[in-house]
Amino acid sequence: MSLLVLLGLIAAVPASAAPRSLTISTVKGSVAGASADEVDRFLGIPYAAPPVGAGRWQPPAPAAAWTGNRSATSPGSRCLQFGGYTGPGMSEDCLYLNVYTPAHRKNRPLPVMFWIHGGGFSSGSGDTQDGSLIARTDNVVVVTINYRLGVFGFLDLPGLSKQGAGNYGLLDQQAALRWTQRNIGASGGDASRVTIAGLSVGGHSVCALLASPPARGLFSGAIIQSGGCPSHTVKQAVARGKKYAAAAGCSASPVGLACLRAKPASELQAAAQNFTGGALSGSLPVSGVPELPVAPLKAVRTGRTANVPLLIGHTRDEVRSWAMPFANATKEQYERAVRIEFADEADAVLAHYPFSAYGDSYTGAYAFGAPWRDSSAFQRLGGCQYQDLTAKCAKRQPRTYLYEFNDPHPPTGRPSTGFDPGASHGSELSYLLPRATSQLLSPEQQQSSRETVRYWGSFVSTGTPQPQCSPPGLRTGRERSCPCCRAVRAGP
């Protein structure tokens, strides 16, 4: 197995230039995008019909054709959000994608990175991240997508069609991949070289797609960033669906399903706010159905996934920022929580992570964050289990790489509170798919950004992250960061 250690890297975006108009053709019609900073952008392209009315809780249907040039200079509506995320620009009519492609393309088709956003399957959108940097730096076409979220994307009830029940968001992702196969050539992309990539539940989605038979042949590589392979069984999903229907004032019968379909989206959102306990206890793909016959984790363990190159990894301090609410916890509260969480292993955990090891005003947060970061309690996001998961993948696919993002002070775009989140969950996106934080980078970080993007870009292009180097003094421990990656040999 090859292990890739990727440490301390940041991205930047150059100043904008005046855009120019341009048009490409898709199988449904022409779209008019815009070009700036050496990148052509085609935003808000429909890849499926609006899932509204009778289309609510149905597999995605083909988008309607249009005449003339459809404007593609701004993103489409975001899918309806949950977990307190509100605002304009959200709609059930949300199945849109964005394409970023180098403006000065060569005659040969370019590799494609297909990005799936995170957000707990309850929030997020394709336009949250900007694919311009990777497109410009690595001659890679980037596709970002919206997909249905929360109750609209992952509800399962007995009265729903067997096809897609509980997995509408996953089927949306597959529909967007099929759109990419049919249309990406118009923007210079190579449909035979599509790498699916995602962070957090975007990484969960990548693992589910690896395990999904209908998705076979739609991609040639995969990147899982701080994600895992969790899923619900049909029994679990239906039980959740029945509880949700009751919270929405409907039954779980066919009549109750009609009741749910008749409700305005705002009422369904409100019912979900009262029902879910947060992103991690909410929606997940459902296994034991045609689109996901085997649970993704079991598929990985038994070799029943797509046999493609895989880059998988996490950040050093995955969940530290989530431990911030425990900043004022006492030693007694910390030890009690550890004993509840780790049961028979609590003494060993407390010996390895003593409360006294963290000494400032945020002691509780640092103390809680450390064992959470390293334990399988947060196996969906990061920690020691990544090595085990990667080892299982590598038994079938030798081109499997593991990375750790280890920059101790990545930009967050938020005011400093004195609490150090470290290389927290999702912090590498400032380097790869930057948005507002990009202007906070130092010159050294900007250089590291360019190197990082080239590593990702080389994996998308070839299935192997390059360049790989081993500078003097490089350590792979938690206290050393280096703007470099290297491959090292590991045991079987």
Automatic annotation (TrEMBL):
Looking up InterPro entries in the UniProt record yields: AB_hydrolase_fold, CarbesteraseB, Carboxylesterase_B_CS, Type-B_Carboxylest/Lipase
Looking at the record, which segments are called Disordered? Answer: 405-424, 459-480
Give every Carboxylesterase type B domain span.
23-467
Pfam short name (any one): COesterase
| Keywords carried by this UniProt record | Hydrolase, Signal
Task: Please list which residues make up the signal peptide.
Answer: 1-17
SUPFAM superfamilies the record matches:
alpha/beta-Hydrolases
Which molecular function terms from Gene Ontology are attached?
Answer: hydrolase activity
Which ranges does the record mark as transmembrane? none
| The name this protein goes by in its record | Carboxylic ester hydrolase
